[in-house]
Amino acid sequence: MEITQDDGYVLIDCNIYKNDNTQCQSQSTQKTSPMGIKRIYDTDREFTMLFDIKDYLISIWESYDKNSMKVWKQFCLDFPRMDFMFDEENITDPHQFFQKISKYWFKENIIFDNILTYLLMIMLCNQSSFGLPCELLTKIYSDEANNQHVIYRHDRSMIKFTTIADDVECTINTTFHIFNTASYRTLYRIPVSLSLDIQTSKKQSGKQMGIIFWKLLKEEQK
Prior knowledge:
Blueprint: E1 9-11, E2 14-15, E3 23-24, H1 25-28, H2 34-40, E4 46-52, H3 53-63, H4 68-78, E5 82-86, E6 89-91, H5 94-100, H6 117-124, H7 131-141, E7 148-151, E8 157-164, E9 167-180, E10 185-198, E11 209-214, E12 217-218
Parallel strand pairs: 1-4, 5-8
Antiparallel strand pairs: 2-3, 4-11, 5-6, 7-9, 8-9, 9-10, 10-11, 10-12
């Protein structure tokens, strides 16, 4: 899919999880001018960012100290907090989810040699999968001098898995808030959608890229 400004998208050029050195063009250039500030707070735009899927998943895996038992324990804690769909079917029970992913128990993928596809799917079900968009939005919208922070307020999130042959497409929908700690008010809500593919056979060379979409919704102040 080609993304152009004519489609109403703005491509923010960010490199996340690169040797713990996060650089974001929107922070370094857009926030230095009134036009730049207006642009990143434009509620009529939908913003996008491409990211390296392997870097993203490695960061999550390392947050669990590369320990599958820690992933499982967090899954048990996070499952009741979120909504799940698998091939357009609502999943309300962990056992039902395990049945759905049973075909991937021993399925390899092109991202990792030592992590099977089912464990990647379980890992994406945890709230640690929100880390990348949270870090991105924090770098763009947080302004400590004005008591403005990006926070997650436990809005109900949705994880969707769609299978295409043996491959899996994952979409994570959640919401962050631009929150003022002085007035204790939400200034904007930020619905976020993160999409990536887990491929079990190599179809293309080069890096596998995912995409994040987000939009600002201004909160009416009472």
